[in-house]
């Protein structure tokens, strides 16, 4: 008989719980800007890369168009982004930051950055945890591609 791994011993459960706490943490941190975490990561991509297509944006943040489209509509309604058809290829929908988003960039960065400091991790610890999580993600991607495991 296989010995079961109890709930409190499950790595997946620890990550799930941390994910829930992070969502709550970011919800509070982003509340003054009326942004959700998903909206925030979309803005991060646009602040880092500039205008991009909806398709490329979805690939970068890991959201499908069914999730991304309503999110972008809300950001557009709140004047954070604009969406326009490409002049080169009408099938391509381009997403760009508005003047408001450009003006608010430093304020959002400063606010969220100060919240991250509240976690109390050294820069080395922060980077180590981030690297460990990315390594785990890569391993999971490799395993999930190997159909023989399941």
Written as H for each helix and E for each strand, in order along the chain, the element string is HHEHHEEHH
Give the structural class: mainly alpha
Taken together, the total number of domains comes to 2
What's the CATH topology name of the largest domain? Arc Repressor Mutant, subunit A
With strands numbered from the N-terminus, the spatial order across the biggest sheet is 1-3-2
How much of the residues is beta strand, in percent? Answer: 5-15%
How much is the average pLDDT? Answer: 91
Overall number of strands: 3
Domain HTH marR-type: 8-145
Subcellular location: Cytoplasm
InterPro entries: HTH_MarR-typ, Transc_reg_Sar_Rot_HTH, WH-like_DNA-bd_sf, WH_DNA-bd_sf
Pfam family, one: Staph_reg_Sar_Rot
Overview of the structural elements:
- This protein has 150 residues and is mostly helical.
- The protein has helices at residues 11-30, 37-49, 54-61, 65-77, 99-117, 123-145, and strands at residues 52-53, 81-85, 93-97.
- The chain has a 3-stranded antiparallel beta sheet.
- The longest helix has 23 residues, at 123-145.
- It is globular and about 60 Å long.
- The protein starts with 10 loop residues before the first helix and ends in a 5-residue tail after the last helix.
- 8% of the residues are buried.
- The model has no long low-confidence stretch (mean pLDDT 91).
